[in-house]
Amino acid sequence: MFFKRKIWKRPLVENFREILLHAVEDFQKTEKQIATSFMEEDYTFVLSALSTAQEGAIALGNAIEQRKGEGRESVLILEKFCEEVYQLYQMQGEMLSQGNSTVSTQTKYVEEENRELIN
Predict the structure, then answer these.
(1) C-alpha–C-alpha distance, residues 39 and 20, integer Å
(2) How far is CA 85 from CA 8, 12, 79, 82, in A?
(3) What angle do CA 25, 52, 62 make, to 5 degrees?
(4) Looking at residue 3, what DSSP letter applies?
(5) What is the structure's pLDDT at 80?
(6) Residue 90, CA atoms < 13 Å, CB-side half-sphere
(7) 8 A C-beta contact, residue 26 and residue 56
(8) Which residues, 6 or more positions from 83, have their beta carbon under 8 angstroms from its beta carbon?
(9) No. of H helices and E strands in the chain?
(10) Cα–Cα dist 42/9, whole Å
């Protein structure tokens, strides 16, 4: 045979819904990693992961808008998520710049929230 059969096989292509489901699973994993890292006081990782999560949410929102059009509820939810992530990033950055001794009040609140996410 002139062509090998392997060449004729198409790569597995996910549909848009599967891509969205994988993205949500990734967000959930990242959220747990952030919570765990925060409780372990790995604040540098927390800042990096928050930034990455926000970038992912923006990319996902853009993909949804391109595929389904603007004004979708899912995009509005992602925009709110990005705002929340930005607020967390700002708070975490302030806590780092002030030193770990000044984070006790904010840390207790966030740890309580994180325990709910991890369990």
Answers:
(1) 29
(2) 45, 33, 10, 5
(3) 75
(4) S
(5) 92
(6) 6
(7) yes
(8) none
(9) 5, 0
(10) 45
What global pTM score does this model have? 0.65
Q: Are 62 and 54 in contact (CB under 8 A)?
A: no
Please, are residues 16 and 67 in contact by the beta-carbon 8 Å criterion?
yes
Distance CA 118, CA 41 (A): 16
pLDDT tens for 57-81 read: 999 999 889 888 888 888 999 999 8
Give the C-alpha distances (Å, rounded to integers) separating 64 from 17, 23, 58, 114.
Answer: 10, 12, 10, 29
**Distance separating alpha carbons of residues 100 and 92, to the nearest angstrom:** 10
- For 28, how many CA atoms within 13 A lie in the half-sphere containing its CB? 9
